[in-house]
Amino acid sequence: MNIPNLLSLLRIILVPVIVIFLIQDSYAKALIVFTIAGLTDALDGTLARLLNKQTQLGAFLDPLADKILLSTSFISLSIFGLIPGWLTVIVISRDFIILLGIMTLSMMSVTYEIKPAFVSKITTALQIGTVFFALFLKSFNYDIITHDLIIILSWLTAFFTIISGLVYIFKGIKFLNRTA
């Protein structure tokens, strides 16, 4: 176990803490913990590259931690009415479709290498930004601009999430066609 992998584990451990704070209406605390979790995401990848500590476990753990953090955050925030439910459906559906694709390729013994597409990095940044701003605006009671800003950010996030999902679907189809 190395430092980048420990940071990914920390991100997973912080997820229930965020949910507990949301349940307690402690939005500022949830924002702080979410920000720390987001920083571990940026830090683990950077440290893995700088320290030459990239591992198979890390390649699995980092995206898993991201999915757990973002999925849980989107579900929780939509339940509490801070982000639109339709956006949560899009975010979760994309991840589910990608997971289904990976399972299909694995079950068919298709060799594949998944490298994050550039659009996926934008998608992740927008998803993190959506959660961050929803928590930020709720923490500081900016109700007047909250709705409009979150709706604009939600549509932008939805657009990139859908595009990113389509990119992965097309990549999966290419992998399948190579074996046919």
Write a compact overview of the structure shown:
The protein has helices at about 5-25, 25-50, 55-80, 85-105, 120-140, 145-180. With about 180 residues, it is an all-alpha fold.
- How far the N terminus sits from the C terminus, by CA atoms, comes to 39 Å
Shape: globular
Low-confidence stretches: none
Order of helices and strands: HHHHHH
Portion of residues in helices?
A: over 70%
Whole-number radius of gyration?
Answer: 17 Å
Structural class by sheet pairing and helices: mainly alpha
User: Sheet with the most strands?
Assistant: none
What does this structure look like?
The structure is a single chain. With 180 residues, the chain is an all-alpha fold. It has one domain (3-179): Four Helix Bundle (Hemerythrin (Met), subunit A), CATH 1.20.120.1760. It has 6 helices and no strands. The chain has helices spanning 3-23, 27-50, 56-79, 85-107, 118-139, 143-179. α3 packs across α5. The longest helix has 37 residues, at 143-179. It is globular, with a radius of gyration of 17 Å.
Produce the secondary structure layout.
Layout: H1 3-23, H2 27-50, H3 56-79, H4 85-107, H5 118-139, H6 143-179
Helix pairs in contact: 1-2, 1-3, 2-3, 2-5, 3-4, 3-5, 4-6, 5-6
Which characteristics define this entry?
180 residues, mainly alpha, Four Helix Bundle (Hemerythrin (Met), subunit A), 6 helices, 0% strand, globular
